[in-house]
Design goal:
alpha+beta; six-stranded mixed sheet; four-stranded mixed sheet; 21 strands; 48% helix
Length: 768
């Protein structure tokens, strides 16, 4: 039977078939064949490594040669064999030199294996062993997912290590043997690499429980001659019976594996003599029809054990394995297991999912089209392989328990792994949605996300993703105006699960608001310059006069009314010398308006005395009678807000809310002007009879629709709040509205804003 070669994962560089020499290797070896390329890699490694030995006590070169022999038995490609010679030690063979000499494909495989090898340090780190293995499992999956051939290198390297310890009759570290049984052997089983699985299990079992291993091996050896004689006789009888039925078949005895027998004895609570597959036959035929024909012949020869029949052809195992398994009672009354499969099924049983891999090849014409068709057919196998990796991760992770991963802080089962259409593995938190997936792949893709297909089916963007699913994002074209929806930030709607995604969405809206405020502020500044006839004044100079480091921050402050119109006009009019002399303190003269640059200012001493009489605005200045006060427009304080005063030049005391950014900047520049203020009785208790009302700025964001402004203003009218100013801006179907309303106190304003939030389409309503 001609054996199909085992290819690896398609590389992003020059694709090649399993038997061909990759481009980088061919360049290094001047067109040498596969064997010459591997020999060259070993020779180059020998120059760098010499007789250095690894942790197992085996020389690096001997380990590489043994691993390459294992890879050849499963027909691994040349790049994998070359990479095996160059993996360790890393300090003697830098990746940049490997890439320069043997190509990027080999370097990528070497890096993947080195990443996995570095994970061994987690086993010796302090803490729970389960936690360490859980994190090792997670990182190993991501490293192997970068190139599927890393799986083969990992399994072959571990098998070589165990063979070395068996030959030396010296047990490896207990962690190595346990990891083999708990992590690597299940991986080989999941991928259908049974040639490696059985030997990995038996060697690890030998070191994990040597007493049980020796006792079981001795029991099997006692009846080995009798068992082999029976199998030979059974093969002759079955061959003769199948030939009489017109079925051509290859028949052989099935090898016995100690760890499999031990597991069955333990799980089924049976003695060794009662295990059905101590004696076994394997029948290989040409077609599926012949499988069932052979089954009928064998059931006609011996008595079937009904509960021991499994039809894995009609119902394949999750890893793709197909075969007929039956147990019959032989003439001596003891069980005999028979496996029946086609040649294709047997090849899959030998190599697993890897038996169907295809490389894309360069070329043109009909031959190239045929190769492209084969490559496209192999794409499904690539996805299947990845899903087997994810299934292995989930199953082994559950077996290891729910210990928290050292790096991520999440239990293993609280992470999921999904696939891109190109079979790239993406790690996400449990419950993640297609939007989380899109932002993890690329921020731009997240901004443009408009829909998603999961396993080929369109799904809502709120759909929680599951392990192993393939996700494809339907994205808007890049026009410069696309962006996320504000609904994505609403946790009740369930669009976003990841904090990372939520931060990126907020970042987009913050940048949008900054851009809008910058444009608005620039427009206001330009109008002021034109009105004052000072268009030659540079923005940088004006920003310096106002105490800002950058022009953009000045524009934003103007747009958000942290700088009042009169303050801006005064800064424009001020001569350069005066501006330099007075500095930013003059610019911070309060949002209530400007004052002459040379006017004297009265700075009262701050002393704790009884509150004096207030003015008409309801504000009292502690320690000073009849001092003019005015409410700052930058923060618009409303009773009972905590307030503080700032003495301006010629305009009395400007009253700000505590925490106002403009006040904080002015206080830093002129702390001697800060004065204590409080609300008077008229302001605090006169609101109920309507004697006083205060202006307040309100910001509303909502999905734009007809009648939106009307519905909001009706709320204000119902609560008897007078609207004295309104501005609106709509972009990307999102309306941003700013209202200036007169309110009696902050409590009433809070009730009104709560009602505004109930209006259809409103996403945010807050006091500025």
């Amino acid at each position: 039977m001609k054996r199909e070669r085992l290819p690896g994962a398609a590389s992003s560089g020059s694709p090649s078939t399993a038997g061909a020499v990759p481009a980088g290797i061919a360049a290094a070896g001047a067109g040498a064949g596969p064997a010459d390329a591997v020999a060259e890699a070993l020779a180059w490694a020998a120059e760098r490594v010499g007789e250095a030995v690894g942790r197992s006590g085996e020389a690096h070169l001997e380990h590489a040669r043994g691993t390459i022999d294992i890879l050849r038995t499963i027909d691994a490609d040349v790049a994998s064999q070359v990479a095996t010679a160059l993996i360790a030690p890393a300090e003697h063979m830098p990746l940049r030199e490997i890439e320069a000499r043997f190509g990027a494909e080999v370097a990528r495989l070497v890096e993947g294996m080195r990443q996995i090898q570095r994970l061994r340090e987690l086993h010796s780190a302090p803490g729970s062993e389960v936690d360490g293995q859980a994190e090792t499992l997670r990182r190993m999956l991501l490293a192997m997912a970068s190139d599927i051939r890393v799986v083969l290198l990992r399994l072959a390297s571990r098998l070589r290590t165990l063979r070395h310890h068996a030959a030396q009759r010296r047990a490896p570290d207990a962690a190595i043997a346990r990891e083999t049984l708990e992590v690597l052997a299940p991986l080989a089983n999941r991928l259908g690499l049974w040639q490696l699985k059985w030997e990995l299990e038996d060697l690890a079992f030998r070191f994990v429980d040597p007493d049980t291993y020796r006792r079981l091996a001795a029991q099997l050896e006692e009846r080995r001659v009798e068992r082999e004689a029976f199998v030979e006789a059974a093969i002759g009888r079955v061959r003769q019976a199948l030939a009489g039925a017109g079925v051509t078949a290859e028949i052989s005895g099935r090898p016995k594996h100690l760890y499999s027998i031990y597991n069955k004895m333990r799980s089924k609570q049976r003695a060794l003599e009662d295990i059905s597959d101590l004696r076994g036959l394997r029948v290989i035929v040409d077609t599926v029809a012949q499988c069932y024909a052979a089954l009928g012949v064998i059931h006609g020869m011996w008595t079937q054990v009904p509960q021991e029949f499994d039809d894995y052809i009609a119902r394949p195992k999750p890893n793709g394995y197909r075969s007929l398994h039956t147990v019959v009672l032989a003439d001596d009354g003891r069980p005999l297991e028979v496996q029946i499969r086609t040649r294709e099924m047997h090849r899959f049983a030998e190599y697993g999912v890897a038996s169907h891999w295809r490389y894309k090849e360069r070329g043109s014409g009909a031959a190239a089209a045929a190769r492209a068709a084969r490559a496209e057919a192999g794409y499904d196998d690539q996805i299947a392989w990845m899903r087997q990796l994810l299934a292995w991760q989930r199953e082994v992770g559950q077996a290891l328990g729910s210990g928290e991963a050292a790096a991520g802080g999440l239990p293993v089962e609280e992470r999921i792994y999904v696939l891109t259409p190109q079979a790239r593995v993406i790690e996400l938190p449990m419950g993640a949605t297609p939007i989380d997936f899109a932002y993890h792949v690329h921020t731009s893709l997240g901004h443009r996300c408009r829909g998603a297909r999961v396993d080929g089916q369109m799904v809502p963007l709120t759909t929680p993703l599951q392990n192993g699913q393939t996700v494809e994002i339907v994205a808007a074209k890049e026009t410069g105006h696309e962006g996320p929806s504000r609904d994505w930030l609403n946790p009740q709607l369930g669009y976003v699960r990841s904090a990372r995604t939520r931060a990126k969405v907020r970042q987009w809206f913050n940048a949008l608001e900054l851009e809008r405020d910058t444009a608005t502020g620039r427009e206001r500044v330009e109008r002021t310059l034109q009105r004052e006839g000072r268009t030659a004044l540079a923005f940088e100079e004006l920003a310096r006069r106002l105490g800002f480091d950058t022009v953009q921050s000045m524009f934003v402050a103007v747009a958000r009314e942290e700088i009042g119109a009169r303050q801006l006009e005064e800064a424009v009019r001020r001569p350069p010398a005066a501006a330099r002399g007075s500095g930013a303190a003059a610019a911070g003269a309060g949002t209530a308006g400007g004052e002459p640059a040379n006017e004297a200012v009265l700075v009262p001493t701050r002393r704790r005395v009884r509150p004096a009489g207030g003015r008409g605005d309801g504000v009292l200045v502690v320690g000073i009678d009849s001092l003019m006060t005015q409410l700052a427009r930058c923060c618009r304080p409303v009773p009972p807000d905590e307030i503080v005063g700032f003495v301006t030049k010629g305009h009395g005391v400007s009253v700000h809310r505590e925490g106002c950014a403009t006040f904080a900047r002015m206080a830093d520049q002129a702390p001697e002007r800060v004065i204590e203020t409080t609300w008077g009785e008229e302001a605090l208790h006169g609101a109920g009879n309507g004697t006083r009302r205060f202006p307040a700025d309100v910001e509303v964001r909502a999905a734009d629709r007809p009648g939106l402004l009307r519905d909001i203003t009706e709320i204000f009218a119902r609560d008897r709040l007078n609207v004295v100013g309104v501005t609106t801006l709509t972009r990307q179907q999102i309306a941003s509205m700013r209202f200036t309303v007169e309110v009696p106190d902050a409590t009433q304003l809070g009730r009104t804003l709560a009602a505004v939030r109930e209006v259809s389409g409103v996403m945010q309503a807050r006091r500025r």
